[in-house]
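ingest -> validate -> predict -> emit
validate: passed (alphabet ok, no gaps, 591 aa)
predict: started
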Amino acid sequence: MKENSIIDRFHNWRTKSVNEDLFFIILSIFIGLITGLAAALMKTAVIFIKDLILEHINAGANSIILFLLPVVGISITFFFVHKIIKDPKNHGIYGILMSLSQRKGKIRKQKAISAFFGGILTSAFGGSAGLESPIISTGTSVSSMISTYFNLNFKQTTLLLGCGAAAAMSGIFFTPIASIIFVVEVLVIDLTANSIIPLLIASISAAIISNAVMPSEVVFQFNFIEKIGFREVPFLILLGILSGMMSLYFKRVTFSIHRKMQSYNTAFTRLLVGVSILGVLIYLFPALYGEGYDTLKQMIEGNASDITDISFLYDYRDEFWVIMALMFVVAFLKVISTTLTIESGGVGGFFAPSVFTGGLIGYMYSSMINYVNPAWNLSVKEYTVVGMAGLMAGVMHAPLTAIFFAAEITQGYILILPLMIVATISFVTSRYFEPQSVFTKYMVDEGEVLSHHKDKTVLHLLTIKSVIDTDFTSIPENITLKEFTDYVSESTRNIFPVLGNNGELLGIVDFGDVRKVIFNSRLYSKKITDYMIQPRDFVSTTDKMETAMEKFNETGYYNMPVIDNGIYKGFVSRSNTFSAYRKMLIDVSQD
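emit:
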């Protein structure tokens, strides 16, 4: 009781004495520092543990340890998340989108712990998924706890979640601009005059603290990128199409494996199946181990043959076509290993795998063109970076994020035009064949919607239950017209649902239909059912609001009956619906 009193007094002081804009700036700084520190610690821990393990494996041999490590790592993660933290559902970007879509904007506080340690265990021990989603989950979980503590509304909570996500990505890559764009494109949080400052501050704060803590060898950035000339535009267009088709493959395989894994009855079965296949894949192709950023760095720095390390192809590391064939196989297997990692119980995401796969595609594409005709002399390291952006744009449906991410990790905008060409073409190609991104497909399958299209978003967030009217006076079926007059005198409505003994809706009496006869005493003995009409349509509490709006337009009704399994529940009216729509529109708008 005393604690509640202190919190109440603090809230009252904050409300009266602290300007809301200043308050959000303070919160965004705090979120940025906490999330940036978490990002640096997670990234550093994963690299340290991974290097400690792999340095004891001899080059030129596929060690059985490569099979065992992901099995052990994901199994420990599974036990930790399911049995200790008890937070097995909705990890990563998908969980955040679901929270926003269902208008809760609240994320379980356990998510910060499960994402932080689960991400480290999964990635460090070989799980073939990215750390970005766990770090973003950690940042948004912290933001959600702060929102709950200060009792913030949905709009304010949404902005804080955006700050947490932007801080997480900026803390990993030191890319504050791309991080904000990621929040807009992927998390569908509007960038407005009110939101831009907190997002910027959180992003910058995370980059500063992470840069101060994270070792330089862990940072994924490059500063020796050269310009790609206009003569190479045809090559860039072709790379964009190739990236788009590879993105389509990435998404389709992800969805297919997800459906197959979910067909198994228990999480333990999924664990056994997933880690068994994953262990074999990593044993055969060690380049699938972990996120893949270290392999990309080696490729961009001119050491592509390192992809054969600790593998049975080590003796062929100087053979061009062997390297190309290995990269080709790894590029197509990466999405399989990533999805198995996640579906079997590991904690990770698709950001790093899409970057890794795109880098391989860009490297192979430019290298083979140069091999066929050296006169074209394409710059391989630049095409590797551009390929990263192409896959990101196509897989995540976030072309601007991809463009600015690639531009910022190369510490300049010298590649901006090639990035724009490849990312745009890849995005358009991928979306043409598969309209949903790797994040939103599962949401659509579950009937969830989250969009910058405010009308669709608001109608999705509204529910029939939230606008139902239950103050209509119901009447039994066996009364006379005279008895009906008693109900009329007590009602403020013109519509009277006629109910059976079990509450089922038998019909409706509209006062307008009986107005002319209700004062004719000679007709008082007539049954009220003689004046009853059947509704042309109805809705249920499980229907989407879009369904109700369509039926309003089709029937011309101003009041629509709500029926669940034949049982009358009330009415929804146009006026209440539009009032709720306007209120919701204000709630979800950032301005």
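The CA atoms of residues 109 and 157 lie 14 Å apart.
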